[in-house]
Design brief:
Number of helices of chain B: 5
Largest sheet of chain A: 6 strands, parallel
Largest sheet of chain B: none
Number of strands of chain A: 6
Helix content of chain B: over 70%
Order of helices and strands of chain A: HHHHHHHHHHHEHHEHEHEHEEH
Distance between the termini of chain B: 68 Å
Structural class of chain B: mainly alpha
Shape of chain B: flat
Strand content of chain B: under 5%
Shape of chain A: elongated
Oligomer: heterodimer
Number of helices of chain A: 17
Strand content of chain A: 5-15%
Largest interface: A-B, 114 and 86 residues
Order of helices and strands of chain B: HHHHH
Number of strands of chain B: 0
Helix content of chain A: 55-70%
């Protein structure tokens, strides 16, 4: 294939990616957009085998490696539970960053002494940022999978260690650029991997999605830098698109949580250590039976359901819809109050409830639902905690301080369906649980909802 | 215009396109959009294939193959998982999904 033809065809693929992102920005065209992107990626992968300058020396190795990748990636993506999707995306992002770093390392081995400074700098950039994205994503995965603690991990002098690692990485980069040696490259990659870990450790659980988005943008930029070294327009366009859109998305997400990106990343260092939750002191909470809850709901005029991660864990989206339908048939006005970052990812709840075919118009976003709480008789909080925690307003210095919340405290009654008294993902005690107008129903969200539904039918 | 400058121009223009296409997106679609963008950077697969093809030593070949595997996982898995998320936005008849999720109740 001639270089010109190849160039034109890859330009078409780049256009596919632009259309894909455009499509993904609107609910109606989102699925089509994703398919266009997939088609573009498929075409590009085929085309590269016919690109000018291909030797085909290792064709079978490459095809075998692709087969392995497909055999690992597709089942993982198909079998994953909706609840675990955020960590899967984090993991996919991490392997992408790792791939970019490996590509850059191979390029580096070939560059030789005659390489231009720009190429070396772009390569070094890719190795560093790709490694950070890889190790950072692995930590976000471990946090979301709850293999490690979801709380911010802070150790004495942490910020100096992090700053030191960053300076060390940059110093090693300088060394690589001057020496062009292999040892220096290994040292630099290792430092970058450590930096990726340190950089994500202090981020509190609730902020992890923002970090995933940021690392996603990072990986995009590494792909663009690889494109510069490999002289591939396609990689530059695709990588830059992801880098730019990922940056915007990260800002949108941070804005949805009412915090600056800086605060998200470094907040754990500046926050005062929380006063330990009064250990030992037993505070009374009011816990109710499914029948109590059913009665409260039955005689309400307006009910707002606030779903959270607990709903996702219990896979209770269908049961919650059944309850809502039942209430609607009894003449109760039902809406869902959707916090933008409820669950583990922005929009998580929308995806989940859409799966249960909850009517779109019943999903009310935070800004619209908040003014209606004073006229709401009952708020049913299903497995959410941080997004309704008044500490975000009242306790300066706590990890979620400043995050806009669903103002459920102004409603007549609040019912919490919770597994236990354990605090939410961000690890902060919720004062609302002790409020006299709060009723708690302990247990798995799906079980509890099923019991409430049958109690309601019996009324 | 030198080749490097041409590539740089493409980079700058792409930044603006990237900002432009996602400047307005509802929170509903944040997750699928992030996931879709994640799949798109799996295109590093093209770079991984190119460097593996040109590998001269076993070290280069080994690293290249690892890169191809990782990039394929990123790309293919990314598009599939995004499609699964978006599938749920479609108003499909409820019955089939219900049976699937609850492990086949009565139907």
């Amino acid at each position: 294939m001639s270089a010109n033809l190849y160039g034109v065809l890859t330009l078409a693929v780049a256009a596919c990616f632009i259309l894909a992102l455009k499509g993904l920005s609107s609910p109606k065209s989102a699925r089509r957009g994703n398919l266009i992107g997939a088609a573009g990626a498929f075409i590009a992968t085929d085309l590269v085998f016919f690109s000018p300058g291909m030797t085909h020396n290792h064709k079978w190795w490459i095809l075998g490696a692709i087969a392995i990748g497909v055999l690992v990636g597709v089942p993982a993506a198909r079998k994953i539970q909706m609840t675990q999707m955020p960590q899967l995306v984090a993991l996919f992002n991490g392997v992408g960053g790792g791939a970019a770093a490996l590509v850059a390392i191979v390029e580096y081995l070939k560059l030789g002494a005659g390489a231009s400074t720009a190429d070396v700098v772009a390569t070094v950039f890719t190795v560093i940022v790709g490694s950070v994205s890889f190790s950072g994503s692995v930590i976000t995965f471990l946090k979301l999978q709850e293999i490690m603690t979801t709380r911010p991990v802070v150790f004495p002098g942490g910020r100096f260690v992090i700053a030191g690692t960053l300076l060390g990485t940059l110093g090693a980069a300088e060394w690589v650029i001057h020496s062009m040696g292999n040892t220096s490259l290994l040292v630099m990659a290792a430092l970058a991997l450590v930096f990726g870990v340190l950089f994500v450790l202090p981020v509190g659980g609730a902020d992890v999605p923002i970090v995933i988005s940021l690392l996603n943008a990072f990986t995009g930029l590494t792909v663009a830098a690889s494109g510069y070294v490999l002289q591939s327009t396609l990689l530059i366009v695709a990588g830059t698109l992801v880098g730019a859109s990922g940056t915007i998305l990260t800002r949108l997400m941070a804005a949805a949580m009412g915090r600056s990106l800086f605060g998200t990343l470094f907040g754990a260092f500046t926050a005062k250590p929380q006063a330990a939750v009064e250990g030992g002191e037993v505070r009374s909470v009011k816990s109710g039976s499914p029948d109590d809850v059913a009665i409260l709901l039955n005689y309400a005029q307006r009910v707002v359901i606030v779903p959270g991660f607990g709903l996702a864990v219990a896979q209770a989206q269908h049961t919650v819809r059944e309850l809502a339908d039942l209430l609607t048939s009894k003449g109760v006005d039902v809406a869902y109050g959707i916090h933008p970052v409820a669950g583990r990812m922005p929009g998580h709840m929308n995806v989940l409830l859409a799966e249960a075919n909850v009517p779109y118009e019943q999903l009310v976003e935070m800004d619209e639902v908040n003014p209606t709480f004073p006229q709401t008789d009952v708020v049913l909080v299903v497995g959410a905690n941080d997004v309704v925690n008044p500490a975000a307003k009242t306790t300066p210095g706590c990890p979620i301080y400043g995050m806009p919340i669903l103002d459920v405290a102004s409603a007549g009654n609040v019912i919490f369906l919770k597994r236990s008294m354990r605090p939410g993902f961000a690890g902060i005690e919720n004062e609302l649980l002790y409020d006299p107008k709060t009723t708690l129903l302990f247990g798995d969200a799906k079980d509890s909802l099923t019991k409430v539904v049958s109690a309601l039918k019996a009324l | 215009m030198s080749n490097g400058l041409a590539l740089l121009s493409i980079f700058v223009l792409s930044v603006f396109i990237g900002f432009e296409v996602v400047s307005k997106v509802s929170t509903t679609l944040h997750t699928p959009l992030m996931s879709g963008a994640n799949a798109i950077h799996g295109i590093i697969l093209v770079g991984a294939i190119t460097v593996t093809d040109r590998a001269n030593t076993n070290l280069e070949l080994g690293l290249g193959i690892a890169a191809v595997i990782l990039a394929t996982i990123n790309m293919v898995g990314g598009f599939v998982v995004t499609d699964r998320m978006l599938e749920m936005f479609k108003g499909k008849p409820r019955v089939k999904k219900d049976v699937e999720v609850s492990g086949g109740e009565s139907k």
